[in-house]
Hints:
The chain has 279 residues and is an alpha/beta fold. The protein is 24% helix and 21% strand.
Amino acid sequence: MIDALPRDEIGTPPSMDEAQLRWLTDSVSRNRFLPQPDANSIFVGDGDFRAIGAEFLGHFIRMGGLRANHRVLDIGCGIGRMAVPLTQYLDGDRGRYEGLDPVEGGIRWCRATVTPTYPNFNFQRLDIAHDLYNPTGTIKGRELKLPFADAQFDFIIMTSVVTHLPADEVMAYLAEIARVLAHGGRLFMTAFIVDDTARRNATGRRDPRLAFERAGQGPCWFVPRQPPLAAVGFDDGFLDGAFNRTGLSLALKSFGHWREPGGTHYQDVLVGERQRSRP
């Protein structure tokens, strides 16, 4: 794990201290007045919608260096699990949030429920093809073009996105992310990294749902008897190299407790920073 992020170069104020951050995340997780979709509408994974959102808000600030005045892009925003807690942190005048997702139902709920109260939160559907989430999509993943001008964002979120993408599409996403990130801007990504510990599972304590097996000669690992994109792991080092090739320096890499108990987060976390000049 790389322990510290580089000094913020976007001119943002210092982060809140740990006591303030704990108060914020606890308040979000307990706030029954925050919008929450019907349980039957949630398609973004299991677990408590509000509690998981509050947990990730803490990760974004502690690990990613998110600030209240940042311009945020949430790729794969789903039905607002990350957006809802961010409404309690991003500054209403200076902060901005854009959410993208291929699932119309999630975007429709967010537009109807979040945006009217928080007008600096915008959501739009991106009709990108995906075998599981949007099989009739008109945009191929390898041809992704994000609908934003260059250098528009300070912080980009990709939670549980590359865990459902093939390697060539990951490269297309990262190239576009590097384009729309401002200098010094950061990407917060979660992933399944199949290192030696995860591969051997010597302790027998890896999440049994993620019995990854290598897919051919490439860097991808899939779960047997599941659709290939239901859960995707990558060779340790693949994502690090993909960051470098697309103009992102690796600021932090932290392994999650899906592979063995311990740690503060389930999936692995990588934080990339936009270099001043791309290769």
